[in-house]
Design goal:
Rossmann fold, six-stranded parallel beta sheet
């Protein structure tokens, strides 16, 4: 009988089901008996972790009072100080702070980094945008606290044994902010689910969170001028404004199921992805559904969009530049098999194999 691996898992929180949560769920499939440490877990996702050995911090009790983790930011360092996994290996998945949990100095800590915390290492405008309205008057004090948290975050990053970056973009950030080396293991797309479900229709598509830094306003303005059909999937702080400026040729679908999103990908002539992302899963989902992506030539899109095969990249984030690409777009140029072959490079099986290969020499020493 194979001996049980003495390993603990950790993830920032379970307050939404995004790409990082899907990645963690896959990690948990590799180590299903490992305890899972997290700051908070929302009950609405109980079906995900009902049979897990889930261990939350004391912030869980505060979260029940106000279900917004940002309100409890000040307590996170203290919560992580008391969160000490009793395991020889800790594998954490983080885009914020769980990598700073209290790992024994004799244990090995592997961190799968989706990005260093944007609250700390991004531009100040990002922190201001993410701050709840009721806390806006405290912004100057928050900036001082975040300055302290930067030092705290950097110090704990030096204690991580191995970093895994989810993209070359994040790898460069780990080096820049933490002065640490890392290896890249890309996240995955579920190519068994994302596949064509209908023939091409006469519309373009944008999808995801409707926030100002995603550049969706430019796309809406372009399609207002062109008068061409555009479908918008998703919600966010900019949704009301985008709806107010959109002409009748633009259709807002709001938050949709994965099944509906799959149909939207499949029917679109092209998927437009004008934002700067750490990795960017959605161009791969679109490719798996047989749709090419027009994306920004920065960040993760440089790794997930292959020009001439799975889409095109623009570097000039201006309305005129993007509009030129859209007007010249020919969806017949992109071959379905080539699109799907591109997506298959980022399969779940590939992710599991690469992570297992990375962890093997570590766990074999236990």
């Amino acid at each position: 009988m194979k001996p049980e691996i003495n390993i603990a898992l950790a993830h920032d929180s379970f307050t939404q089901l995004g790409g990082s949560e899907r990645v963690f769920d896959c990690i948990h499939e590799l180590y299903p008996d490992a305890p899972v440490y997290t700051l908070v877990a929302d009950e609405k996702y109980r079906n995900l972790f009902d049979d897990w050995d889930l261990r939350t911090s004391f912030i869980q009790h505060l979260y029940l009072i106000k279900k917004n983790l940002q309100y409890w930011l000040i307590f996170i360092p203290l919560a992580l100080k008391f969160m000490k996994p009793q395991a020889k290996v800790v594998l954490s998945s983080s885009s914020s702070f769980i990598r700073n949990l209290n790992v024994d100095k004799n244990s090995i800590h592997v961190n799968y980094c989706h990005t260093p915390a944007r609250f700390l290492w991004g531009e100040q405008e990002y922190a201001a945008q993410e701050l709840p309205k009721i806390l806006k008057p405290l912004y100057p004090l928050l900036m001082k606290y975040l300055s302290w948290m930067q030092k705290w975050d950097y110090a704990h990053a030096q204690k991580v044994t191995h970093f895994i970056a989810n993209s070359a973009e994040v790898q460069s950030r780990i080096k820049k902010y933490y002065n640490r080396d890392s290896v890249v293991i890309h996240p995955f797309v579920d190519v068994n689910f994302w596949k064509p479900t209908r023939s091409k229709q006469d519309y373009f598509l944008i999808a995801g969170r409707l926030h100002a830094h995603k550049n969706n306003e430019k796309i809406v303005e372009i399609f207002n001028e062109l008068g061409w059909p555009l479908h918008v999937v998703g919600t966010g702080r900019q949704e009301e404004y985008l709806r107010s400026i959109a002409k009748p040729n633009i259709t807002f679908l709001g938050r949709v199921s994965d099944e509906v999103l799959r149909d939207e990908y499949s029917g679109a002539k092209g998927y437009i992805y004008p934002q700067f992302e750490d990795f960017g899963m959605m161009p791969l989902e679109a490719a798996a559904c047989g749709t090419a992506t027009l994306g920004l030539a920065r960040g993760g899109s440089l790794e997930t969009i292959e020009p001439g095969v799975s889409g095109e990249l623009f570097s000039d984030v201006t309305k005129d530049s993007i509009k030129t690409y859209i007007q010249a777009w020919d969806h017949l140029k992109y071959n379905l098999q080539a699109l799907q072959n591109h997506a298959n490079k980022f399969s779940k099986e590939s992710f599991k194999r690469k992570l297992t290969e990375f962890m093997k020499p570590i766990t074999e020493t236990l």
